[in-house]
């Protein structure tokens, strides 16, 4: 019997398993996940979970019906430590081996930490359900909160902490939050969103140290200032989980390198989700968005099955999505589509930049992205325009 191993049980891993079954694969299917918890959705961690509005069962990615459809072996709490591409044999923690005919790499990414910083109580990253529970426990007590990094995770954590009544400061290395992703005008709008809701925004400085004995007391900035804090949340990006592939021959460079069809450099091995750096018309991208983790595994599963069935893999669809991300902060809903550049012009389409609005980015007169706050209908229309332009480029 043919065996396919899916390494990773986050959204990308579960979606890959679903896609394999939907494409008619009826062989042995094994899902290997480092976390002991049943698969769960990550976006609520920085919002509803921190606020105590939902628990683990509310964000589950599988239920009894889906598990019955998948008919898979679940190796939860089990980490893959090596991969032999010639035999497609996985080495699991403890030395156990798992031999497979095909492998889907969906090991995701882990939160980046501040290098060289002491390990103190009250210092958190937010990537897993356990992370969210530990942070929620600290946020249940009075204390000042410093969020390092003004990206989406940092902004959502700041919003949640503020809603819980904390004094919150965001420290952002750039002059404005999300400056490189959204450009100066939109970054300024998001910066004002923080300050309008009582969050202090400290920009243009880095963090050089954490002060405290057992628990954190202060955050030391590169300009010498000290910010008092009982809770520190580090949201400075993520690192793809590829170390276990060292020596495997699977090419990695800030992620597992794949072609447009999610195939790695080794036959019978594909990759999808946050861990995958895929080739596309824009060069090579590794996207840590929920929609990419939802959609990319479908392409990966199709490519893998084509290889196993002796079909022409070049006849399979390519992964060339229109990037899309959303964020909920301070009671407003932010939506972004496309790949706007820092120098692209932001053009207001409806509403006001001081309130709800919809806007487009333009580069050399052509639409390159869409941005909206609390304007879902107009965003949908503009996103369709962007998708039409995207498809003919």
Automatic annotation (TrEMBL):
One Pfam assignment: Pyr_redox_2
FAD/NAD(P)-binding domain sequence ranges: 3-295
A GO cellular-component term linked to this record: cytoplasm
Keywords, sorted A to Z: FAD, Flavoprotein, Oxidoreductase
InterPro entries: FAD-oxidoreductase/Apoptosis, FAD/NAD-bd_sf, FAD/NAD-binding_dom, FAD/NAD-linked_Rdtase_dimer_sf, Reductase_C
Residue stretches making up the Reductase C-terminal domain: 324-387
Molecular-function annotations in GO: oxidoreductase activity, acting on NAD(P)H
Cofactor entry: FAD
Protein's UniProt name: Pyridine nucleotide-disulfide oxidoreductase
UniProt lineage: Bacteria, Bacillati, Actinomycetota, Actinomycetes, Kitasatosporales
